[in-house]
Amino acid sequence: MKLLPYSFRWLSVVVVFVALPAQAQHTQTYTYPSSEVVTIHSKLLKEERKIYVHCPKVDSADVNKRFPVVYVMDGDNHFALLAQYVDYLSRPDVSAMPKTIVIGIPNTKRTRDLTPTNSLLNYEGKPDSSSYQGSGGNENFLQFMATELIPMIDKNYKTRPYKIFAGHSFGGLSSLNCLLTHPDLFDAYIAISPSLWWDKEYLLKMTDETLKTGSALNKAFFFSDGNEGRANSFFHKDLVTLEATLAKKKLKGLDYRYKHYPTETHMTEPVVAYFDALRFIFKDWEKHR
Amino acid sequence: MKLLPYSFRWLSVVVVFVALPAQAQHTQTYTYPSSEVVTIHSKLLKEERKIYVHCPKVDSADVNKRFPVVYVMDGDNHFALLAQYVDYLSRPDVSAMPKTIVIGIPNTKRTRDLTPTNSLLNYEGKPDSSSYQGSGGNENFLQFMATELIPMIDKNYKTRPYKIFAGHSFGGLSSLNCLLTHPDLFDAYIAISPSLWWDKEYLLKMTDETLKTGSALNKAFFFSDGNEGRANSFFHKDLVTLEATLAKKKLKGLDYRYKHYPTETHMTEPVVAYFDALRFIFKDWEKHR
Questions:
Q1: Cα(A135)–Cα(A127) distance, integer angstroms
Q2: Which of A55, A141, A172, B266 could disulfide-link to A194, CB 3.0 to 4.6 Å?
Q3: Where is the secretion signal located (chains A, B) (predicted)?
Q4: Cα distance from N-terminal residue to C-terminal residue, chain B
């Protein structure tokens, strides 16, 4: 391969040098706050699961402190975002929430783990056996969290008994399912654009049937949607119905907020909604501490 | 030191084991997207400056692509946040903005670099020589950016000629100062809670004097404030005045948005405002690409 006459070959050397980052400067790696990946074997899910763990940086004054925990679904999408939010918002000069541990759960079989019923119906109510085969394992997944994951985290990290369930889309569906079926597992629930359309609005009906008017449910609950299907879509109507159902039930102690983001898409919305959710859950933190 | 009888000493060994993260699991380090720290010597600032650089992850299809650049002030506060936002918002399944390089500039002498005039007056208009000694070096700092930093970045990284100036507080003041005095240096300007109170509203007056009614200024400009000093404070009034001044000037091509966040503090606001600023600047990106 004689593409260049010999006398011009020095040119390629020069080009390589120019393309290297930093000329005559000293370059180091930028250090992000450290997080780790723990692999555990789940007997219930019959598989190895990777779990992302981010602990607050502790100084000598914090050595004996224990921290609340946020468990976030779709770990590969939103774990690093939440880790960044809690680190920043808990800085002494920001002081909007306590230092918090973040646990991210990346998916293996997302539809299996994050849907409450076995259904093959898609967003439009039509059968889609290729996408939704094997759906309906959320109860088993919540049992995995309750009996395997949370005990492991509580045993190995400096947790205190305040836990938040954070989920988006099917993860938001799981958050509401957990609030309805195992409310005592967590103290606060975040459901960002929950897929309430799932299985002919199964969870929306269950919300109405499960929650008894005037009963006690001492939890914080943030839920939201973006512009999915635009303003008059059934996606948005389902969220409006969820809010109306909660209002109608007059539950004792349920501190909830519904926020609609008409300019955000299904995928951009979590960035702002997770921030607003943390601000909502910890709105009274500064005055109480 | 004989605190425990010998037969109980095994206890302390057990405690140490239990406190270690992860029992019978495999633990690895979580990998954040890589960023680097470049140290350059500035002749203008007469000092070594650390610069944080975050480049998009490129796959084989992107190998020859070049990227816009966001320059963010107060690098230790907001570089990692912006790096996270651009990585997430430019993912193929989110697709809200192009892949973008983020440059973070941590401070050495913040007041010197980020204030436009030499003034000792504090927020309340009273002299504070201890805090503001040496203020007024922003013009020299902008020259450092124009003649030393930006050329170095353009030489060493795959930039394309679209640049964003992102600043908060004194950094927001610098952003507006740059827009008024060197508008062609950047294509878009973000001023989150700019300290317009600086030196008896120096920049607010300069905005009115510098911008000629009906003149052309083809830039994007996002500015915002939180609840600084509450609703009727002069901090908020200064922002309202800035918006009124821009409206009055009827500038050709200036695409600006002012957003007020009454529930956010001076330090929580940047988290949501930087997100909104990127969404504003790239609002037409999806349809144009």
A1: 13
A2: A172
A3: 1-24
A4: 73
**Do residues B165 and B102 lie in contact, with contact meaning Cβ atoms separated by under 8 Å?**
no
CA-CA distance, B277 to B270, in Å (whole number)? Answer: 10
Measure the CA–CA gap between A233 and A201, rounded to whole angstroms.
Answer: 14
Whether residue A245 contacts residue A256, with contact meaning beta carbons closer than 8 Å, is answered with: no
The per-residue DSSP string of A79-115 comes to: HHHHHHHHHHHTSTTT-SS---EEEE---SSHHHHH-
CB contact at 8 A, B186 and B163: yes
Comparing alpha-carbon positions, the chain A residue that sits nearest to B90 is: A268
- Between strands A47-54 and A101-104, the pairing is antiparallel
- Nearest-CA distance from B281 to chain A in Å? 14
Q: Are B189 and B256 in contact (CB under 8 A)?
A: no
**Could you identify the residue written with the tokens 């975002």?**
A81
| Alpha-carbon span A275 to A285, nearest angstrom | 15
Is B30 in contact with A52 (Cβ distance < 8 A)? yes
Band of the pLDDT at A25, cuts 50, 70, 90? low
CB contact under 8 A, B157 and A81: no
Q: Domain locations in chain A?
A: 36-288
Distance of CA A141 to the CA centre of its chain: 15
Q: Does A275 touch chain B (CB under 8 A)?
A: yes
Interface of A with B in 202-261 (CB under 8 A): none
Query: Does domain B38-288 fall into CATH 3.30.530.20?
Result: no
Please give the Cα distance from B15 to A223 (Å, whole number).
41
Q: Using DSSP, state whether A52 is helix, strand or coil.
A: strand
Chain B 154-193, residues with CB within 8 Å of chain A CB atoms: 155-157
Which residues have C-beta within 8 Å of that of residue A121, sequence separation ≥ 6? A127, A128, A132, A199, A200
> Mind listing the pLDDT tens digit of every residue in chain B (289 residues)?
334 444 444 444 333 333 344 344 689 999 888 899 999 999 999 999 999 999 998 888 878 899 999 999 999 999 999 999 999 999 999 999 999 999 999 999 999 999 999 999 998 889 988 889 999 999 999 999 999 999 999 999 999 999 999 999 999 999 999 999 999 999 999 999 999 999 999 999 999 999 999 999 999 999 999 999 766 689 999 999 999 999 999 999 999 999 999 999 999 999 999 999 999 999 998 765 5
| Alpha-helix runs per DSSP H in chain B | 10-19, 75-89, 110-114, 129-132, 138-144, 150-156, 170-181, 198-210, 234-249, 269-281, 285-288
With beta carbons less than 8 A apart as the criterion, state whether B195 and B228 touch: no
- Reduced to 3 states, what is the DSSP secondary structure of residue A71? strand
**For residues A272 and A282, what is the distance between their CA atoms, to the nearest angstrom?**
16
B residues 36-65 closer than 8 Å to A (CB): 36-41, 52-54
Computed over its alpha carbons, how large is the radius of gyration of chain A? 23
- State whether A30 and B25 contact (CB < 8 Å): no
Contact B94 A272 (CB under 8 A): no
Q: Would you say domain A36-288 falls under CATH 3.40.50.1820? A: yes
Measured over the CA atoms of residue A207, residue A213, residue A219 and residue A220, the dihedral's sign is positive
- ipTM score here? 0.89
